[in-house]
């Protein structure tokens, strides 16, 4: 019975970490998409206005 509890505890901890990493990866994916959109908008504005840095 103790071995079963240990196995369940290990599985629970692994699922907890995987769930946390997955949530943070989804958040970072959205942050990356937003930054990419901002970069494209800035590039378009610089191209259309003719400013050269």
Automatic annotation (TrEMBL):
The species this protein was found in: Curtobacterium subtropicum
Membrane-crossing segments per the record: 5-21, 27-45
Domain of life: Bacteria
Keyword Membrane: yes
Keywords from the UniProt entry: Membrane, Transmembrane, Transmembrane helix
Protein name: DUF2207 domain-containing protein
Organism taxonomic ancestry: Bacteria, Bacillati, Actinomycetota, Actinomycetes, Micrococcales
